[in-house]
Structure formats: C-alpha cells, structure tokens
Known about the structure:
Largest sheet: 2 strands, antiparallel
Strand content: 15-25%
Oligomer: single chain
Radius of gyration: 21 Å
Strand order of the largest sheet: 1-2
Amino acid sequence: MSKHRTAAQWQALVDQQHDSGLSTLKFCQQHGIGYASFRKWRTHLSGTSLQQRSEASSASDPGFLDLSSLLMDAPNASGPSWHIVLSLGNGVELRLSQGG
C-alpha cells in the first residue's frame, strides 16, 4: 500500500536526499520510496524551491567576494594580473585569470 505525502513532506524528502549525498535511486531504496514518484515530486517542487534557495543563499551568503578592486589602479596599460581557482567538488575546478 502506498503512503500519501503532502507537498511539504515531499520537499523534506527531496532536501534530505540532496543533503545525504546518496544517488536518488539508492536513497529511495533505503527509505522505501517509489523512485518514479520521488523524481516526479522533485521535478514538481524544484521550480520554486531552487529559486527560493538561490535567493536565500545570495541574500545571506558570507562567501561573496567583490573583485571590483582588481579592475582599479591597474599597474600597467594591460590591467592587473590575477588568477582565481574555484574548487567545485568531485575534482572539478573553475579557473579564471587575466594578464601575466
């Protein structure tokens, strides 16, 4: 017999799966949740929840780095030289650089 969940309960499960680091399939197996139902609800909820998370994150994110000072007072005509590496996890890096 299937269990009927509210949208809030599905959102809590989606958040729990995201935070767990488990694949969707593994999470559903461990929690006795229908894989297709979970994916349907995750898709249904993602429109608003991702936007809300993004807004909340950007509004209170202490990790913001203002790089405008790199563009001011250039030491030479070609501008300042800088190199930034962002580690995104799983061995993925985003590298940004200018000059030298």
